[in-house]
Amino acid sequence: MTEERLVVIVNRKAGTARKLGRAGLLKALEVVNKPIQLLWLHPSELSTCIQKLINDGTEKLVIGGGDGTINQAIQYLVGTKIVLFPLPLGTMNHFVKDLQLPTQLDEFLPLLNSEFSRHIDVGCVNNQFFLNNVSLGMYPLVVRYRGIVRFSQRFPKLIATVYALTKVLLRHQSRRSFIWRTNKGDDIKSPMFLIANNHYELDITSLVHRKRLDRGNLMIIAPVDVKLLTLLEAILYAWTDGIKDASRLDIRAVTDIVIRTDSDHTHAVIDGELTKLSIPIKLETKKEALRVVDSN
Question: Which residue, among 230, 130, 82, has the nearest Cα to 63 in the 3D structure?
């Protein structure tokens, strides 16, 4: 009897995937102890392919790309028994890092032979699932401007981000804040919000990461303003591993939150991708709603 092929879906536009190329990835996949079918797809083809595999009864979804690609996949996986295998073929691969899985492809690929899995939490914003975080307020402006700069000036992503951040900060000298009213009876006033799936460790010596993805909560981080003093305080407290004590940062853990503004909609960045959300913005955690491969 012929062994069933393992289908591997790859976003060919993802950072590492582009550098490696289809032939290079096929060569790397030779370490997997089963036949491989590699689908080298344009981002616009991913959703249709994922839905077909699920309808065909797949038990494993192997998908390669960055956090945006993985986010696209989980929209169809939350609440199912399908195990997600997130190949680290993006630029940063934050999600794979937080899963404490190898971010080097040659170290990750042997996991495709694994039968171990575990459940993790996902966040949900206006019925869209997210793995890492949702940013509201000023940061989406940075991402929008970064896209314009990268297109017009051909800047690398990091340089374009710094350039866009500087421009946005200079343009917003008034530091106009928004009041985001929550269903907890609180008013949080801030020019920008980060709502994370589980708790971010802000220890500057290890950068931003999450030790666990199964605590069952959302973490809100909101600076009172974007002045230099606030930034310096955040850096100081992060360095001393006491970020929760920073008086100019509002940090709290919730299981759900409803955010309102005076507008009908607002821009947001969800797992690195710019989008538009209608108001009110409803966020909640979905505890242990996604199965992922485990290294144990």
Answer: 82
Structure tokens at 14: 């993802």
Burial category of 286 from C-beta neighbours within 10 Å (exposed 0-12, middle 13-18, buried 19 and up)? middle
**CA 207/CA 180 separation, integer angstroms:** 27
pTM here is: 0.87
pLDDT tens-digit readout, 58-94: 999 999 999 999 999 999 999 999 999 999 998 889 8
Measure the CA–CA gap between 90 and 70, rounded to whole angstroms. Answer: 10
Residue 2: partners with Cβ closer than 8 Å, 6 or more residues away = none
User: How many angstroms separate the CA atoms of 19 and 4, rounded?
Assistant: 29
C-beta separation of 178 from 191 below 8 A: yes
CA atoms of 57 and 46, how far apart (whole Å): 17
pLDDT range class, residue 246, cuts 50, 70, 90: confident
